[in-house]
Amino acid sequence: MTDLRHAFASTENLIVAPGRLLLPSGPRPGLAVLLKAGRFAEIAEAEVLRARHPGAGRVDLPHHLMMPGFIDTHTHLTQSLGKSLVFGEPSEIFRRIWVPLEGSLDEHMVYLSAKLAALECLRGGFTTAVDAGTRSAGHVGRLADAARETGLRTVIARICNDLGGSAEIPDRDSILRSAEAHLAHYAGDPLIHPSLAISIPEAASDGMLRDVARLAAEAGAVFQTHVNEHLAAVERSLIARGRRPLEHLAHVGALGPQTLIAHATLVTPSELTLLRETGTAVAYNPVASVWKGNAVAPALQMQALGIRFGLGTDGTRADGFRLMDAAESLQRISYGLASGDSSCGAGWLWLEAATRMAAEASGLAAVTGRIAPGLAADFLLVDLDRPEFTPSHDLTWELVRYGSRDQIDAVFTCGRLRMVGGWPVDWDARALMAEIRDRAGPAIAAAPIQRLHPTADSLSATRPA
Predict the structure, then answer these.
(1) Is residue 445 a part of any domain in this protein?
(2) Is Hydrolase a UniProt keyword of this protein (predicted)?
């Protein structure tokens, strides 16, 4: 195999000729890409590019697919320290585990958690992650530090709750000033994209919901919130406000093209109409539905109605290929089997939802999500010389069903090589993991979390012999 570290030592004026190039029209042979200044500069037949740019370096990768990096439209970077604590737990774990855990983390633990999560994202082929906001006390900048050090493109939200659900609840004016400062601080940053968030609609007053959504829209940023995920939250909203959470967002004017709602698993036909008419985007989180949800978002119906959506992990498992497989599988199990739909997206939908559509839902369509001239060179090199792709008859669908992160040989963001064989090229991931092993136990023990389900290991004595 080509020594990727040596071959990509410099990506300034470099022609990359993969065996297949994944474009919006599908995987194409015979094409090459010119990388320049961290972007895709030109796409053409390999010999044409070489004739146009005789002084450019060249890398031939006949057994690789060059594809856009995956985009996680919904995750939680400061939950990586406790990710397996929620196994077997009933819904609304944020109340008993995530709010207490995140709220107790000091600045350094926030940084360690975010860097661990970024490591997992890049290993899983995610070149971009949309973080929904940390509930820790004022340590948002440490998420940006972790993203820069690892090279993960990140949308970082500042939580603007004024009725609870985070470690600190400043007064209304302070929240709005901090929101504006956050948007201004990262405006134009090449790797960090600012966002605003309210954890769930009930954690904010009507005025705050309206104002935060407006501030995001005016700044060209994304406004994030969790909506219609659990039955309990839907019922609380009906009791307190007389409307379901999504209906309430529409009532106060917080829906729109700037809004990205996570989950939307419990949506009525009229709510689907609201999403379509307002241009609101959805993060479809299939693994979260399996592990801790009450239902599965009707993603196929959303696609048919023209509702914008992308795939998200919700911090469950950072593996882009397994995420696509889960997205297709849950649609087939929940809707396809009953209706006789044996296609359920035909593979292409889930590949698009993990890349181009995810970028559009995340407000990054002009930045990443496709291999196209002018966009950031965020991409993966996938080894096709594997049994799973031999023989290959439908590579798009094969990537969804047979792909796995161990087939990713290299990960790039902004044209820079970040990972080879699942490990970073310019920082010590094992040293990070060693520090986290030392510190995570005391941090978890000090957090006032409440688990209802014992660990599987603790139940070993009750297992059948």
Answers:
(1) no
(2) yes
Do 136 and 100 share a structural domain? yes
- Summarised one tens digit per residue, pLDDT across range 110-124 is 999 999 999 999 999
Instruction: For 284-338, write each residue's pLDDT tens digit.
Output: 999 999 998 889 999 999 999 999 999 999 999 999 999 999 999 999 999 999 9
196 within some domain? yes
Whether 360 and 310 have beta carbons less than 8 Å apart is answered as: yes
Q: Which of 36, 127, 4 is nearest to 405 (CA)?
A: 127
The boundaries of the domain holding residue 154 are 70-361
Res. 167: pLDDT tops 60 = no
pTM over 0.85: yes
Residues 419 and 118: their CA atoms lie apart, in Å, by 12
Q: Are residues 345 and 396 both part of a single domain?
A: no
Taken in order 425, 421, 84, 298, the sign of the CA dihedral is positive
Burial 277-316 (b: 16+ CB within 10 A, else e): ebebbbbbbbbbbebbbbbbbbbbebbeeebbbbbbbbbb
The CATH number for 16's domain is 2.30.40.10
Residues 449/97, Cβ–Cβ less than 8 Å: yes
- Compute the average pLDDT of residues 396-421: 97
Helices (H), 171-230: 172-185, 206-219
How many beta carbons lie within 10 A of that of residue 164, not counting itself?
12
- Shared domain check, 246 and 327: yes
Query: Is position 449 within any domain?
Result: no
Nearest to 272 by CA among 311, 312, 301: 301
Bond preceding residue 391 cis, omega within 30 of 0: yes
Q: What is the CATH number of the domain that holds 246?
A: 3.20.20.140
